[in-house]
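Lay summary. Proteins are chains of building blocks that fold into shapes, and those shapes determine what they do. In this project we predict the shape from the chain. Here is one chain we studied, written as its sequence of building blocks.
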Amino acid sequence: MVSKHRTAIVTGAARGIGAAVATRLASDGLAVGVLDLDEEACTGTVDAITAAGGQAVAVGADVSDEASVARAVVRVGDELGSPTVLVNNAGITRDTLLFKMAVGDWDAVMAVHLRGAFLMSRAVQSSMVDARFGRIVNLSSTSALGNRGQVNYAAAKAGMQGFTKSLAFELGKFGVTANAIAPGFIETEMTVATAERVGASFADFKAVAAAQIPVNRVGQPEDIAHTASFLISEGAGFVSGQVIYVAGGPKD
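And here is the predicted shape, written in a compact code that computers can read:
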């Protein structure tokens, strides 16, 4: 757990992995800026945090837009305190095979994942440097290793790993760590949508996936939240530039 008052920003935190991470960080004692494209969609996450005695604020922001990011970071700072923890979780999919993929499908995925992580990290790094403490956690994916029908998503998630390692080199001397979490199959709305795309029931889709995972189950958002909690903790200050696959087994 974090021993001092800290403020975190979690992007894409209205639901799924982002909501689980935001809720876990609040239980660890951090104030949390809950960011998503639709501010109203963040209400459930904020209500869960405040009902448990935590402190959070819902903020609508387009992470791919520079001005929107700047406004969001200022608002979180004004309402909760300067952010020294950032979880870049916001993401979208536009899955299709290469020959069918429109340029817009490529650009949209790159904008949210990579441009968004860049803009958010750049916007908060000064607060971290001033505090001589910072934690950046970027969400990658096992898809970074390559996945059929996801050339855009796979490229973006691989890019997140290189981005993370570069941040670790640049910011380490200021007490800032940067790490990436690469989830495997996690039960979220996104994986439900993937099952629908391939024409399978979600129950069957999960069963097939679980059979291929050494721990014999699919992941839950809380599995990622637990890993993020560790990386953000005071005790993880000597862990930086790492990519941690949270996938129920080893990945190449």
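What the prediction tells us: Helices lie at 16-27, 43-51, 66-80, 103-131, 151-171, 189-197, 202-211, 221-232.
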